[in-house]
Structures are given as structure tokens and as C-alpha cells.
Amino acid sequence: MIMQYFWAFVIGGAICVIGQICFDVFKLTPAHTMTLLVVAGAVVDGVGLYDPLIEFAGAGASVPITSFGNALVHGALQELKLHGWVGVLTGMFEVTSAGISSAIIFSFLAALFFKPKG
Questions:
Q1: Would the pTM of this model clear 0.90, i.e. be above it?
Q2: By CB neighbour count within 10 A (0-12 exposed, 13-18 middle, 19+ buried), where does 108 fall?
Q3: Which residue spans adopt a coiled-coil conformation according to this UniProt entry (predicted)?
């Protein structure tokens, strides 16, 4: 059990370190860094390595932004098998829609109840 926490921390931390290096060394903007990490997660899932990484690192691989790229590709490939090429378009929305919808709803509620200090 302790080793699961350890590897989740190490892998999740390594993903965050990569993002921080993009900020500090390569002077990328947050938008560029986020895009790079999402695309990296998509590519790693496309070659079939992200699911084994999640099995190994648990939340260390499933919580960072790279997991969103994984979810997009995973959904697209899954629906491709079931519905053909149309599934590529619908699959990525089907898998990620709950998370995106939740983010929109909770952001809206936060904007209603809290005022930023500026």
C-alpha cells in the first residue's frame, strides 16, 4: 500500500516537473504547456502505454492534465472499434463530457457565489 502512494507521488510529481520545466526553461506560456501535456498524454495512450502507467501509478497518472489527452484518445479508439470512423468524433466527447460538464457547472456556481478581489 505504501509503495502505491510512493509511485503515485513520484509519477505525478514527474509530470508536474515536466510542466514546470516547460515554464522555467523553455519559457512556454501556461496555455502552451497545458496543450503540450495533453498532447503528450494522447500520444502515450495512442501507442498503448498510458493504461499500464495508470495501473502502475494510479492517481499519479490519472489526475494530471496528461490524463485528459489519454481520455480523448482512449474514447476515440474505443468508439472507433464499435462504430467505425464516426466513432472517432463521438468517442472523445462521450468519455470526457462528464468532466467537462462538471467543470463548467462548478465554475458557474463559483462565479455566482464568490466575487474575486481585484
A1: no
A2: exposed
A3: none
